[in-house]
Specification:
Blueprint: E1 6-11, H1 17-29, E2 34-39, H2 48-56, H3 71-75, E3 79-83, E4 96-99, H4 110-130, E5 144-150, H5 156-167, E6 172-178, H6 190-197, H7 213-218, E7 221-225, E8 241-245, H8 257-280
Parallel strand pairs: 1-2, 1-3, 3-4, 5-6, 5-7, 7-8
Length: 281
């Protein structure tokens, strides 16, 4: 056993509930808690609806991979929380065990996953307090969230976010979203990703995400790139600081391909640099 409490979350596929619980515990517990998650029959990837639901509250599961359950991990944990794996989760003497009955997000749309996400947060906070760990606030009061927005969240908003992350402004968390986000499986625009890689930025692990009322309300600075128009469902949720960046369209001058993308990237980068300097003050 470690000097800090170790918590392990287990479900069948390690693709939804256990991953959300582990992410909430890392976020709310910080470095005061050791966190593991695994599955008795791990899936190939995390449930896209779970990834999207957590992204809405500013927590990224995009790079997480399901792991197989081992008895050794369970024995090294102070608390093991199971979620629907039943007898496939072995009993380990001396380890506190809880079973959380939660709806399985598998095959469900994100609208039905959000209540599960929020209930998991409530239970995680309760569990942390039982271990003597007071949950940290989320979003962090001292951390400003900057969200870049375009229509599909495949190109310009992803580029703005990638360029801002490259600058690593202290106390600033960078997100991106779309007012009419493309399906997750479409991924980001390949030319956008390649253009950023050329200047040392990356979009690895990124995918289109929807600008939801929850994400809008958690945002401190909302940067709308191009002509995207937030819909009526966001009324009353947008932050006070909403900025619109116009970006020249080189294709109107017959410029296409990598040259077009580089010009768009550089124009966004100039505005990102100015915003970063402002946020550092």
């Amino acid at each position: 056993m470690t000097s800090r409490p170790a918590v392990m979350y287990v479900c069948v596929h390690n693709a939804g509930r256990s991953q959300m619980a582990a992410a909430w515990t890392r976020t709310l517990g910080g470095d005061r808690v050791e966190v593991r998650s695994s599955g008795s029959q791990p899936a190939d990837a995390v449930n896209p609806a779970a990834v999207e639901a957590m992204a809405e509250v500013g927590i990224d599961l995009g790079a997480v991979t399901p792991r197989v359950l081992t008895r050794e991990d369970m024995e090294a944990s102070e608390v093991v929380v199971t979620m629907g794996c039943g007898d496939e989760c072995p009993y380990v003497p001396g380890v506190r065990r809880e079973d959380w009955e939660l709806e399985d997000p598998a095959g469900r749309p994100v609208e039905e996953v959000r209540p599960v996400r929020d209930e998991i947060r409530r239970r995680v906070e309760e569990m942390l307090r039982s271990l003597g760990v007071e949950p940290l606030p989320w979003p962090r009061p001292a951390e400003r969230i900057v969200t870049f927005v375009c229509n599909s969240n495949r190109g310009k908003s992803q580029m703005g976010a990638g360029l801002m992350r490259r600058l690593a402004v202290p106390g600033v968390q960078v997100l991106s979203a779309g007012v009419a986000a493309a399906p997750r499986e479409k991924g980001v625009n390949d030319e956008s990703a390649e253009s950023l890689e050329a200047v040392g930025a990356t979009l690895a692990g990124e995918h289109p995400k929807q600008l939801t009322p929850q994400l809008a309300a958690a945002t401190d600075v909302l940067v709308v790139i191009g002509g995207a128009q937030p819909g009526p469902e966001l009324e009353g949720h947008l932050p006070a600081d909403v900025r619109r960046w116009t970006v020249d369209e080189p294709s109107e001058r017959g410029i296409e391909g990598a040259e077009r993308m580089a010009l768009i990237r550089d124009e966004i980068d100039t505005q990102v640099a100015a915003l970063a300097e402002e946020l550092r003050d």
